[in-house]
Design a protein that fits this description.
10 helices, 266 residues, TIM Barrel, alpha/beta, 13% strand
């Protein structure tokens, strides 16, 4: 899943692709590099981010969603929580809603279900502006995240959204410390027992920076390593700024796994 932020303030690429022409060119470059999905975001959800009004989110998203949909057959995901935005981007060609709030806003589940979209449900403690101030997990982060995702999965299916159209995301970096993030990465196979594909977003995040003592621009290799570890533990979608490097690393891993499987059955 290639990341395409049309925001002025995202932590890694804020302001780089606010022009629709540049955004489409970047989307097509990521497709050429192997992206199977393009995830377009119009509101930054980095720690400390401020909410974006509905009309501004639509102003940022709509030209790019429409243009990318016209330029490629690769499915489009939109990173949003607002039901009004969900309906608008579906009309423009989006097929998946990537929601950091797990479709908890009023009307969000109903919009996704009615429009026949898929959705990713992510765990986040609090809101982006204050989430790093609420990173305590008395029952342990893995248990808390697993229970939250299980509850959201049950709630969404009860509201008429079929489970087969849902992905689950543990929300690396969203209201979590470095030890929390590492514990979640180590326990991804446990979250996989919820029965839905796992989406992970680790690319260039502060957890990588903290491990390596590296700024955003020097987190490529650590992010690719984290992606490989996540897939080895059951992740099925990797959200990344660095598509080519991630695709190539995962292709090598897949080739080794395939050879190992063939050897086991020979």
């Amino acid at each position: 899943m290639g990341i395409l932020n049309v925001t002025p303030d995202s932590f890694s690429d804020g302001g780089d692709f606010t022009d629709p022409g540049r955004a489409v060119a970047h989307a097509l470059q990521m497709v050429a590099e192997g992206a199977a999905l393009i995830d377009i975001g119009g509101e930054s959800t980095r720690p400390g981010a401020t909410p974006v009004p509905l009309d501004e989110e639509l102003r940022r998203l709509m030209p790019t969603v429409s243009a990318v949909a016209a330029a490629t057959d690769v499915p489009i995901s939109v990173d949003t929580s607002q039901p009004e935005v969900i309906r608008a981007v579906a009309d423009a060609g989006a097929q998946l809603v990537n929601d950091v709030r797990a479709l908890q806003r009023p009307g969000a589940v109903e919009a996704v279900a009615e429009l026949g979209l898929a959705a990713s449900l992510m765990h986040m403690r609090g809101e982006p502006g204050l989430m790093q101030q609420t990173s305590d997990y008395p029952d342990g982060v893995v248990v808390t995240v697993r229970d939250f995702l299980a509850a959201r999965l049950a709630n969404c299916t009860a509201a008429g959204l079929p489970a087969e159209r849902l992905l689950l995301d543990p929300g690396f970096g969203f209201g979590k410390t470095l030890p929390d993030n590492l514990a979640l990465l180590a326990a991804l196979d446990d979250l996989g027992r919820l029965g839905r594909p796992l989406l992970v977003g680790l690319s260039r995040k502060s957890m990588i920076g903290a491990i390596l003592d590296a700024p955003v621009g020097r987190r490529l290799h650590g992010g690719v390593a984290a992606a490989v570890l996540a897939v080895s533990r059951g992740a099925r979608l990797v959200r990344t700024h660095d598509v080519a490097a991630t695709v190539e690393a995962l292709a090598v891993c897949a080739a080794v796994e395939a050879a190992s499987s063939e050897g086991a059955t020979a």
